[in-house]
Amino acid sequence: xxxxxxxxxxxxxxxxxxxxxxxxxxxxxxxxxxxxxxxxxxxxxxxxxxxxxxxxxxxxxxxxxxxxxxxxxxxxxxxxxxxxxxxxxxxxxxxxxxxxxxxxxxxxxxxxxxxxxxxxxxxxxxxxxxxxxxxxxxxxxxxxxxxxxxxxxxxxxxxxxxxxxxxxxxxxxxxxxxxxxxxxxxxxxxxxxxxxxxxxxxxxxxxxxxxxxxxxxxxxxxxxxxxxxxxxxxxxxxxxxxxxxxxxxxxxxxxxxxxxxxxxxxxxxxxxxxxxxxxxxxxxxxxxxxxxxxxxxxxxxxxxxxxxxxxxxxxxxxxxxxxxxxxxxxxxxxxxxxxxxxxxxxxxxxxxxxxxxxxxxxxxxxxxxxxxxxxxxxxxxxxxxxxxxxxxxxxxxxxxxxxxxxxxxxxxxxxxxxxxxxxxxxxxxxxxxxxxxxxxxxxxxxxxxxxxxxxxxxxxxxxxx
Length: 465
Ligand code: HEM
Description:
Blueprint: H1 5-28, H2 53-64, E1 67-72, E2 75-81, H3 83-92, H4 94-97, E3 99-100, H5 104-110, H6 120-136, H7 142-161, H8 170-186, H9 190-195, H10 198-211, H11 214-221, H12 223-226, H13 235-257, H14 266-276, H15 287-318, H16 327-334, E4 343-344, E5 349-351, E6 354-356, E7 361-365, H17 366-370, H18 413-430, E8 431-434, H19 441-444, E9 447-449, E10 452-454, E11 461-464
Parallel strand pairs: 2-7
Antiparallel strand pairs: 1-2, 3-4, 4-7, 5-6, 8-11, 9-10
Helix pairs in contact: 5-13, 7-8, 7-18, 8-15, 10-13, 10-15, 13-15, 15-16, 15-18
The structure holds protoporphyrin IX containing FE.
Residues 100, 115-116, 127, 296-297, 300-301, 304-305, 308, 336-337, 340-341, 343, 402-404, 408-412, 415-416 line the site of protoporphyrin IX containing FE.
């Protein structure tokens, strides 16, 4: 079929009108903070260097300042950068910025249930309960310290068996971190210990593998297309559902053996609360919220702790001279959640002169806080002096926000801190770390994989002291 020039002109006109109207409704009509100019349909995706999201967003900060808008496809995201602005958003205007933003790789599975990806009353109830229960179960208490020490001892034994042979530590650290969460959520009865929940470990690992794959990453920024494109990222939902089936089985066993006077673990505490609230029509204590909250704890906790440990060991290999007062600097330098977890405005919000409508996705750039030259003298260098005063004593630095801040601050912070402290000290008391490879500054710099900053893959030897 050959088109006449009139038809070609007509088609061209229709295309132009379509692009113009899409452009206006997508970008121009929204009176958001300025940022790089987006293209129709794909937004700013081409302006973000492949695999260099942190670097690209930091560059935009230099050009557009501490508040700017980026478009992932047609979706606007307001990016907030630097300690002062992030603090103002998350703490001073915490109610405005405290909602959870869109996380396309997880949203179709969680559907706003559980703790991490919920909002409003559901989030309030899940968050209050989780905080209280984790505290009651022993966060920050002696009993808990003993549990972590027990796990650290098991790790030392496994490492001794290696007799100084080089090893890649990912699996070992991930297993140890997951085991601690297992004992909080499922209790540490002997049958569970024996089984070591191999299956659950495999699910958690695969979830992270898929989230950090190029497919998962593309889905996070262009869900409008990727939700419908076949590929490995489609497995995420299936794996999460299998994980939930597994969790449900364990909950069933708890129901059969529940003793309301003896709370053994997180599941027991939730089941008791469910029973107390059974006549409350507005209760959020449902089976669905229980299983998704458990899923959240594993996904948020296991990888975060083991990734921090992995960064830490690498940094200690590079800087063997400083084996104390370093954990804060490891958190800052490793910067494992560079954009935190996306937030969203809970209402129409005025921020630094900009009107940001309710429901806009917000990225608080924790990476920019951790590299803020106003708070860290050598932001791009690993330097424990950032946390030491002139007498060599520990000094807090408010711009260390590895666990974020405000309403959504990480509820696992106390557990993670205790875990990291006990693991690092136990490892260093028992071993000297060594590696054949000489690591450069570029080697120790964190790099983005999925939504986490991970260290390079490396091997090290644990030489018994
Ligand atoms: C080194 C370890 C960890 C780091 C650096 C870390 C960091 C973070 C960050 C940055 C957030 C986002 C907060 C926000 O939205 O503003 C978060 C949320 C969360 N973390 Fe952690 N985390 C760690 C360990 C843990 C552990 C061990 C657990 C479980 C016990 C956990 C459970 C959670 C949950 C459930 C949320 C979502 C909270 C909500 O939406 O209200 N995290 N974490």
